[in-house]
Each structure stands twice: as structure tokens, then as C-alpha cells.
Write a structure and sequence with these properties.
two-stranded antiparallel ribbon; mainly beta; 14-stranded antiparallel beta barrel
């Protein structure tokens, strides 16, 4: 019970820590021991992290065990487009995990654990063509994201025979989400009617060419800051474990999809720079149509025109909304095998299918209860519902690794993981560069005394570059842009057989 109490205290701390992933928005694995061999573990029954990868495998652990792990994730980011060629901010993300498995004398076995399930984040200061001062000098904007997913709860397994076991995990998922960046949308979202006699909407006016009295925009952009979003959900896993003998074992595992509804968020949408740009175009158009008019007189005339359209420029172009967002985590199906060709050498292979296409097809965003009458006038409502495109592709994750006992106390490990990049070029953008593909890992274990073992591993996500399509489905600033990601991850764990 003392070990379980420690676990519950640790879980409350865990919920305050942001976390980030190394493959899509999924962690490669969950403790230093298995990470050292590239995370191969679905068919390799030697760690409490099986509660995340194949809960049936905990039946074959030799004894009860408490496993604590700490990882430090250090990503390196770079973004390049026509205005930028910049590195992202270097962040250091702590990733703790804690798991306990209780072995009894019966065929039943149970465990409880809390794991940093995955996420993604980035921080940049980038230039955007819309953001400049009156002298034309570019003003850098904040680009920030954080998607943090944590998971934990109980697992149980039952041995139907000495060789075959079935297990399930019933886990709570807690997630946090933040975005801050210039957010571009089609002018068609502006459904407010400019003139009831003609039926022209603000969207049509903003997109119409200058010759037709419009501004000629293909997109309208607001400085978006979406924060305080959190979601609580549930997921389940079922696993099968078959141990042929001490040399060969197999595992099969399925994870349910997880629906996340992020609530209680706040979103600030500031169209000041967009409106300033439109105002400047309107002034230039007025002066072109009325030669000899001074700039000051043209500005007064345009202000009058905006007033007639129901836009009071003194009230600005910024609004704050109540925010709700929906997203999913993918279902997955994995198969694993482990084999020991000679006594001190063990090899493992995992192959996992991730159904990103059904999970990250879009992010639904709902903005409600806006207060600025100018924004409500242009949108035709004080609320806005949009589907942010993601269109991720299904991916396969392959993990291969091994370990070798140098002595009864010292073990070395190495492995390689390949994860297909699920992000299509059409929706690649700077602050969600989940494009890592190749990972190389190495690790060691040293038995300090009796049941206590220290595990350490080093993981490197090799540099990966990906290019956005032209045109981009996100915004014109990403047309043909390049995003680059690499990472160093340091893992340290302590395992205590009980």
C-alpha cells in the first residue's frame, strides 16, 4: 500500500507538467529500459510499461515491481519561408512516468500507472507579411503551440494457461491545448451583409478585386491566442500475450480511439492589422478615384464609409470568445515478437499501425459569446465555428532493438525506430511540425543491489525536413515553406522488484 500511495501522490504532480512526443504526437515508449532498445515491447514481457503497450504481458513479469522514470525532451526546430529563416526557441520538457504491477499467487495480475502519453509544441518569433508598422518595417509575431496528453489508470491481466494471457487497461486521458499565431481564414466566413439592397457580404467585399470596389484578399488574418483549454476523456487497451518458452514470445495489442473535447478555453482574435491594411487600401482607392484629394480628406471619407457599413473604428477590431475545441487521438493496432538466439542476447520487433486519418482529419473550433460589435457585424454573428484542416495520413511505426547481458548486473541495449510522417504537405505549418521519422536509441541497465536496477537511455530523433505544398491549405505564408525537426531525449529510470 505504501508503494500505491506514492504512486497516487506522483500522479497529482504529473498532471501539472507539460509533455511532448517524438513520433507524430505519440511517445516512442514510456521508460528508460524499453527506450534503450527502441521501445520494442509488445511481445517482450519484462516491464510495467506493458500497461501502455500490451497489458496482457504483465502476467509474465517475474514479481511485483515499482518502476519510476524521468525523461528530458529537447527538440530543435527550424522554419523557413519567403520572410523567415529562423530557429525555434530551445525548450526543455520533463516527461515523468510511474508504474506499479502487483503479482499474486493466482492467475490474476493487476497494475496501475501514469504515463506521458504524448503531445507536441513549438515556439517561434516569425515575420508575417501583414504585420508591419507605418514605415513598412516588419513586426515579429509570436507563434506558439502546446498539445500535452497524459494517461493513466489500472490494468488487469489473466493467465488462461501457463503460456497465454489476456489483459486490459482502462485509462483516464487528460489533455491540454494552446495556440498562438496569426490565424488565416477564407473571407467567406464574414457573412455580415454590407448593404441589404445589394446583398453583398463583408466576405464578398474583402475578396472582390479593387476594380469591383473590393480589397482583393484571398484570406483574412487575425492574431489568435487560444488558451486554457483542457479535456478529460477515457481510453482502453486490450492485449494478448503468448510465451512459447523462455526464448520466444508474441504479443498483440489494440488501443481504442480517444475523443477529446477541450472546454473552458478563451480565444482572443485581433484583426487590427487586417483592418489597418484594408483601411489603407480603401484610402488609396478613394484617392485614385478622386484625384487631388489629400490623404487626410481621403481618410475622413473612408471612415465615413465604414461608419455607413456599421463599423465604428473607435471600437477597434479585437474580440474575446469562449472557446471549445474537438480533437481525437488515434486507435492503433500493434504486433510484437521477442526472441533470444543465445542466452545473453535478446532481440525484439514491434510493428504498430496508427489510424491518424480518422483522428487528425480536422480540429473543430467553436468561438462563442463575442462582445465587439464590429467583429459581430462583419461575421454576421457573435460566434464562429470553423474546422481547422489537418488531413493526417495513417502511419506505421516499426521498432527493432536488442539487449545483451555483459554480466549478471550490467546490460547494454540499442535499437532503431522508424515512424512514417503522418503530416501531409498541404497542412504542414510551423508550430505543429510532427514530422519525425528516424530514431536511434541506446541504453544500459545496472543492478545496484538485490531488486534495485538503474536504467538509462539516450534517444536521438534524426533531423527531418518537410516542405509545405504551394498553395497551402493553412495559410499563404506557408506556401512552399520548410519545417525542420530533430530531438535529443535523455531517459533515466529506477526499477524496484518487490
Amino acid at each position: 500500500m505504501r508503494a500505491l500511495n506514492r504512486l497516487l501522490i506522483f500522479s497529482s504532480i504529473l498532471l501539472t507538467i507539460p509533455l511532448f512526443a517524438q513520433d507524430g504526437v505519440r511517445s516512442i515508449d514510456y521508460n528508460a529500459k524499453t527506450i534503450g532498445r527502441a521501445g520494442a515491447g509488445i511481445g517482450w514481457f519484462d516491464s510495467p510499461e506493458l500497461m501502455m503497450t500490451n497489458p496482457a504481458g504483465i502476467s509474465f513479469l517475474p514479481s511485483s515491481v515499482l518502476d519510476a522514470n524521468f525523461s528530458l525532451f529537447v527538440p530543435s526546430l527550424h522554419f523557413q519561408n519567403t520572410l523567415n529563416n529562423k530557429d525555434g526557441k530551445t525548450n526543455y520538457y520533463p516527461l515523468p512516468d510511474l508504474a506499479y504491477v502487483n503479482k499474486t499467487n493466482s492467475d490474476w495480475c493487476w497494475g496501475i500507472g501514469f504515463f506521458t502519453q504524448g503531445g507536441m509544441g513549438a515556439d517561434y518569433n516569425l515575420y508575417n507579411a501583414l504585420y508591419h508598422d507605418q514605415s513598412g518595417n516588419m513586426i515579429a509575431q509570436t507563434y506558439h503551440s502546446k498539445l500535452a496528453n497524459m494517461e493513466g489508470g489500472p490494468s488487469v491481466a489473466y493467465k488462461f494457461s501457463p503460456s497465454f494471457s489476456v489483459g486490459i487497461s482502462a485509462h483516464v486521458v487528460y489533455s491540454m491545448l494552446e495556440f498562438q499565431m496569426p490565424y488565416s481564414l477564407s473571407p467567406s466566413v464574414m457573412k455580415g451583409v454590407v448593404n441589404p439592397q445589394t446583398g453583398m457580404t463583408f466576405g464578398q467585399m474583402f475578396s472582390a478585386p479593387a476594380a469591383s470596389g473590393g480589397f482583393g484578399y484571398n484570406e483574412v488574418t487575425a492574431s489568435a491566442n487560444m488558451s486554457d483549454l483542457s479535456a478529460l476523456s477515457f481510453t482502453g487497451k486490450i492485449g494478448l500475450a503468448y510465451k512459447v518458452n523462455d526464448q520466444l514470445s508474441f504479443g498483440l495489442s489494440y488501443t481504442l480511439p480517444t475523443s477529446l473535447t477541450f472546454k473552458n478555453g478563451k480565444a482572443t482574435m485581433d484583426m487590427t492589422y487586417q483592418m489597418n491594411d484594408a483601411f489603407g487600401k480603401a484610402v488609396q482607392g478613394y484617392m485614385a478615384q478622386n484625384p487631388g484629394t489629400s490623404a487626410q480628406d481621403a481618410q475622413l471619407a473612408v471612415m465615413q464609409e465604414f461608419s455607413q457599413m456599421g463599423i465604428d473604428l473607435s471600437k477597434g477590431a479585437s474580440d474575446t470568445y469562449n472557446l471549445e475545441t474537438k480533437l481525437k487521438l488515434p486507435q492503433s493496432l500493434g504486433f510484437g515478437v521477442s526472441y533470444s538466439p543465445i542466452l545473453p542476447l535478446r532481440l525484439g520487433l514491434d510493428v504498430e499501425w496508427l489510424n491518424w486519418s480518422s483522428a487528425f482529419n480536422q480540429m473543430s473550433i467553436s468561438l462563442k459569446d463575442g462582445q465587439n460589435p464590429n467583429i459581430a457585424r462583419m461575421l454576421g454573428s457573435n460566434s464562429l465555428n470553423v474546422d481547422f484542416p489537418l488531413d493526417w495520413k495513417n502511419a506505421v511505426l516499426i521498432k527493432f532493438g536488442g539487449e545483451y547481458d555483459i554480466s549478471t548486473s550490467f546490460t547494454v541495449r540499442a535499437g532503431y525506430a522508424y515512424g512514417q510522417n503522418p503530416v501531409p504537405s498541404s497542412t504542414l505549418f510551423s508550430i505543429f511540425p510532427a514530422i519525425a521519422v528516424n530514431h536511434i536509441m541506446a541504453g544500459v541497465s545496472y543492478k545496484i543491489y538485490g531488486p534495485v536496477t538503474v536504467n538509462a537511455a539516450y534517444e536521438i530523433g534524426l533531423k527531418e525536413s518537410s516542405y509545405s505544398s504551394n498553395p497551402s491549405d493553412i495559410a499563404s505564408e506557408y506556401n512552399g515553406s520548410m519545417s525542420q525537426l530533430s530531438a535529443n531525449v535523455y531517459h533515466l529510470g529506477l526499477s524496484w522488484g518487490l
